[in-house]
Amino acid sequence: MQPPRARWFAVLPLAFVGIFFAWPLATVLHRGLSPEGLDVLRSAATWRVVRFTTVQALLSTGLTVGLGLPAAYALHRLDFRGRRLLLALLTVPFVLPTVVVGAAFRALLPEPWTGTLAVIVAAHVFFNLAVVIRVVGGFWSHLDDRWEQAARTLGAGPVTVWRTVTWPLLRPAVLAASALVFLFTFTSFGVVLVLGGPTTTTLEVEIYRRTVQLFDLPGAATLCLLQVVAVMAVLLVAGRLQRRLAVRQRLVRAAAATHPVRTVGDRVVLGLTLVESVIVALPILALVVESLRVGDRWGLDWWRALGVEGPTTRDVSAWDSVRVSVSYAVVAVLIAVVVGGAASCAIAYTRRGSDLLDAGLMAPLGTSAVTIGFGLLITFDVAPFDLRGRWIIVPIGQALVAIPLVVRTVLPVLRSLDPRLREVAATLGSSPSRTWRTVDVPVLSRALGVGAGFAAAVSLGEFGATSFLARADAPTLPVQIGRLLSRPGEVNSGQAAALSVVLVAITALVVLAAERWRHPSAGSL
Amino acid sequence: MSGGLAVRGVEVALGGHRVLGGVDLDVRPGEAVALLGPSGVGKSTLLRVIAGLVTPDTGAVTWDGVDLLGVPAHRRGIGLVFQDAVLFPHRDVAGNVGYGLEAAGSTASERRDEVARLLGLVDLAGFQHRAVDTLSGGQAQRVALVRALAPRPRLLLLDEPLGALDRDLRERVGAEVRDLLRAQGIPALHVTHDEAEAELVADRVVTLVRGTAGARVA
User: Fold this and answer.
1) CB-CB: which of B77, B86, B133 is closest to A248?
2) Architecture of domain A34-296 in CATH?
3) Nearest residue in chain A measured CA to CA from B86
4) Of A227, A236, A504, B15, which is least surrounded by CB within 10 A?
5) Segment B148-158, tens digit of pLDDT
6) Which residues of B touch A165 (CB under 8 A)?
């Protein structure tokens, strides 16, 4: 039985990614290798930024993994009341827009903390704990616990069991999670833009500063190039290590491996997880408090101020940015679902070269959002392709960031479809196109619904690419929050906090709706 | 009081359901006992209680009259051969067989000699560096057996170790296991739901039957 024609599905995604990703990236690389751009590499300041970017990413990754492992164990191997609630709470920060994370830490910690290494690392740990808990925990919950039991009956104590059995089997998942966290923190933009200072800045923020404040496009392009090279090197090394450490094993059904809290060690790990949950809840609470705190009293002043237009014509009211964000999100979701859906079909139905196609369409995921935004900005700046002033460029940039997530959601579902179902349909007299409509599409549409939810969350919170592309008189919510935070005074920080709460609420609604789509029958989390 | 293993009045509830309802059982030194019973009756749970992997709600488990329930699994000196081998996927055959010796703190050269001797016992000489996922079902089960024997347990528990093998192989490996345990003088408790297998491997057969309040020995 022939699967549907892969060729036709590949046309749209290849064209879209080619025009809006590969071409801009090529433009960036071309500009970056110009003599005036390369001057940046001779400046000591540049290397200070590179060093800080690397050091904070390493520290953030180490701490996140160190704190995430016990929580992953407690939440995926132990059986206790409130486990699902804690899991949900510790996962929330990851869907928070980065600007909101920045705003939350500004609200939580007194002024002198802003601009320190400590606050940046703390925000990154807060933000990425969910990655370690989900990636490592997801794997851990499927790890057959009889290997550990076999080791115990062979005379291995708890420490030996961990060292010789659990850790070697878990290592590939820990490595995968570490690589993700390192990439996220190495290319961190929103958090560092809000919380960083003159000496505590990452490459991403430096690229933005050079573009927007110094108008040094060649220098910014060179830094983008440097960033792309660094990210590719990390991906390459991580991929290689992962293949070397990978252990072929049969995974078991989740929950088969959970057990009640028994030992002192279990209790310590559970206690630590509870403490982590409280710490994670603090910044979110601080945000709510900040939005309601007016001087020494409580009040709704900042919430009322959201409807008032700013002092200049370019300052639209905060509520207007809600409208802007939502309409951009609708367009971005449409693009991401159509392009991502077609891409998933193309990859799933191709027999030869599907890995290559997959890697090509995933490339935007490995590229920082700032590079994507910057690339679009400097590529589509001459007629007839002058899109700078057009609103459509914003959802296009956001869709580029979201497409890989849509593909990662839809592709596994499509691949798990039993090919014999298509054969059955064919033997029942169904034409290839009818077979596709009646067998593939029902499965596809549900997965696309979940993907659309993710795409909407990405679009609503997107800050890296959007901050380059959004017009000054049509800021999205994150851009508006970033703007308010960059101004001094309680009026601005209070409004930023209120607007952050609004953005969190909208994002939460979208994510919850997508999760319901995944389990249509379940009312649980 | 007789020597060896004594299980008295062991009750276990798992997930709100009473699995074992007051089980008594003895395994005397040098003896091979077969534990027979329908699948799902709780035979594996009883083995896990004896090995120290499950704590019973009530009852006693002793060795030569000394309490075992307070002793963690890795200090009981009781070996367990799992139903489908459960070989460590990240270690080769030698790494699996030598695991218990390693935990006991033996040197690398002692381990090398002992692993070679044990593999020879089950006709797997020269298999040291094979990856475990390249072994056949019968080979994997024999590796699991000598892995459990390596730390010289005072009692060996076998949880339907031959269940996954086809009939011819089951009889051959079953006889091998019996002779091996006899030669080493290690008492064994051998779980099976196959009567012929029980007769083949054991000196004495004990049957576990379903009861309204959990399984009991008939």
Assistant:
1) B133
2) Orthogonal Bundle (1.10)
3) A147
4) B15
5) 999 899 999 99
6) 88
